[in-house]
Design the sequence.
């Protein structure tokens, strides 16, 4: 009996190996194995763990509908890189070499260190392309393209143009951009400044002198620069390119104390956690946030479906930016998977993704590869926090990029 059992087990293993040899690593006749890398924990408290819920929700719907060409998604969940590049590299290697995944979905980690390994191995990865490691690859597919284009490559104009539409035009209006001294924040200051000038705003100034390590004990020097930046007066719009709610709360509260009456906007204040803290909600009241996906408050059918999918796998879960990023990254992966067809290998999958691939969806706008390996997708929405609640200010819309100067 022991010999029979071992023989049967050996035959099953050989059969599975044979299936994978025919189709490729992480793929059998009935399954496709997927895992992700997130920053679930960090010293600063920053976490993207909700992206795992978003991806799982989208994968579960795909499985309930019969899978993709008869194959179900076997989602292993996501590894935690602890916001450490070396740990991210180790997590990517574990998923590929030990867990034998076909692709990494979602990858949502600001300091992700596994990009070079995945590119060398030809392993696809999908997520939020927040850093330069996503750009110029053939395997990394950010749901929003590449946010760190090189000079001469396309750079986004959607934020400035959406704000111009919201404010009834940009003629005669000025904008001031506040960043921190981190390289990523400074780079964002360059691309976002150009987004507003391309939309017709006058650039009143850019300040990158704010320390990124912690909010300053005194905001007055920064406020004074802002309040006198437009020929001695305040600008019409202040854009904050600072990572962290504490920074924005401090800056906005100080500006309001100084009597600022203009528009405040940033990319991070669309966060339900803000509403739980009265002081934060008050400081951020009236702020226009700029997410790169259709807001949860939207009546779009795609958003209703997202909510249904999430409720099925994680009832009562709060909808967050990170959750949306995981969901839409998984959605794009599934679409690319479907277009590749039944005969699936990584090589054929990447050929699909990099071969004039265009996918449009009201949830995130549009994505176009291989073009968006080198530039952002040019799409975004605006959300306003008012009276303790978020409301859609401008629904998702896509605009043409312009070459980065």
Sequence:
């Amino acid at each position: 009996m022991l010999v029979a059992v071992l023989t049967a087990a050996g035959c099953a293993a050989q059969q599975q190996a044979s299936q994978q040899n025919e189709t490729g690593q992480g793929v059998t006749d009935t399954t496709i194995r997927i895992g992700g890398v997130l920053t679930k924990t960090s010293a600063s408290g920053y976490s993207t763990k909700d992206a795992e819920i978003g991806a799982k929700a989208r994968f579960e719907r795909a499985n309930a509908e019969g899978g993709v060409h008869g194959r179900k998604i076997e989602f292993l969940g996501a590894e935690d890189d602890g916001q450490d590049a070396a740990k991210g590299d180790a997590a990517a290697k574990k998923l590929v070499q030990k867990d034998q995944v076909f692709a990494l979905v979602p990858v949502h980690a600001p300091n992700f260190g596994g990009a070079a390994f995945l590119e060398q191995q030809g392993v696809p990865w999908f997520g939020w392309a927040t850093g330069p490691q996503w750009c110029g690859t053939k395997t990394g597919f950010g749901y929003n393209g590449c946010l760190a284009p090189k000079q001469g490559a396309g750079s986004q104009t959607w934020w400035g143009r959406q704000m111009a539409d919201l404010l009834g035009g940009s003629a005669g209006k000025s904008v001031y951009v506040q960043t921190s001294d981190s390289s990523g924040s400074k780079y964002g200051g360059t691309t976002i400044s150009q987004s507003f000038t391309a939309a017709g705003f006058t650039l009143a100034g850019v300040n990158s002198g704010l320390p990124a390590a912690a909010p300053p004990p005194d905001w007055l020097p920064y406020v004074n620069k802002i309040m006198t930046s437009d020929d001695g007066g305040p600008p019409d719009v202040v854009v904050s390119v600072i990572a962290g709610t504490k920074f924005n709360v401090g800056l906005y509260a100080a500006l309001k104390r100084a009597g600022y009456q203009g528009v405040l906007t940033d990319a991070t204040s669309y966060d339900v956690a803000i509403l739980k803290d009265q002081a934060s909600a008050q400081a951020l009241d009236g702020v226009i946030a700029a997410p790169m996906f259709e807001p949860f408050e939207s009546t779009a059918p795609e958003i209703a479906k997202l909510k249904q999918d999430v409720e099925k796998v994680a009832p009562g879960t709060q909808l967050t930016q990170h959750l949306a990023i995981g969901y839409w990254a998984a959605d794009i992966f599934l679409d690319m998977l479907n277009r590749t067809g039944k005969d699936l290998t990584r090589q054929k999958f990447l050929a699909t993704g990099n071969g004039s691939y265009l996918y449009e969806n009201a949830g995130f706008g549009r994505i176009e590869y291989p073009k968006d390996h080198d530039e952002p997708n040019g799409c975004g929405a605006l959300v306003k926090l008012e009276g303790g609640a978020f409301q859609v200010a401008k629904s998702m819309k896509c605009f043409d990029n312009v070459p980065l100067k």
Remarks:
- The first helix runs from residue 2 to 23.
- The mean pLDDT is 92.
- The chain is about 35% helix and 20% strand.
- The radius of gyration is 23 Å.
